[in-house]
From TrEMBL:
Organism: Saccharomycodes ludwigii
Protein name from the UniProt record: Probable Proteasome maturation factor UMP1
PANTHER family, per the entry: PROTEASOME MATURATION PROTEIN, PROTEASOME MATURATION PROTEIN UMP1
Family: Belongs to the POMP/UMP1 family.
Keyword Chaperone included in the entry's annotation: yes
Alphabetic keyword roster: Chaperone, Proteasome
Domain of life: Eukaryota
GO biological process: proteasome assembly
Length: 155
């Protein structure tokens, strides 16, 4: 019984010519990855930037952009090219203006109702809609959501 291999053992066994690189699993098949002839597609810059991220995180970050693109494609199929162009032009005009409505506290809010209407988000709620401008004052006593509800109800 030999524990160590004998010195005249073969390191590779190949049925092909010695100049071709073959697969370790199936020696009769050529190894395309080691030959670097096709089979591999180079990564794009977006894939390289998301290299250490989970694919779900990438999709969540681009969710709104993908939904907007899908919606514009549907508008184009239904109404023609004029409707998505009109919406994009309106959205660019609204983003370029410096109109900011005043909320009930007298502070200027960053919420643009015209933009929400164009993006069909007038009925969606974000954190800014619930907590308004009090996000930076959350460390004060009595400034939580329960205190605000009690104050509004009159308890």
């Amino acid at each position: 019984m030999n524990v160590l291999p004998v010195t005249d053992y073969k390191s590779t066994i190949s049925t092909a010519s010695p100049n071709t690189i073959t697969s370790n699993a199936v020696p009769s098949l050529p190894d395309r990855l080691r030959q670097q002839k096709g089979g591999a597609v180079p990564l794009s810059m977006t894939e390289l930037s998301n290299k250490n991220k989970h694919p779900l995180e990438y999709h969540l970050n681009n969710y709104e952009k993908a939904q907007e693109s899908r919606k514009l494609q549907q508008y184009r199929q239904i109404f023609g090219i004029a409707e998505p162009m009109k919406r994009m032009m309106d959205l660019n005009i609204i983003n370029a203006t410096d109109f900011a409505p005043v909320n009930s506290n007298g502070n200027i809010s960053g919420n643009l109702p015209h933009r929400d209407i164009l993006l069909n988000k007038e009925f969606t709620f974000d954190w800014e809609d619930v907590y308004k401008d009090d996000l930076e004052y959350n460390n004060e006593i009595g400034n939580d959501i329960h205190s605000k509800i009690e104050k509004n109800i009159g308890l």
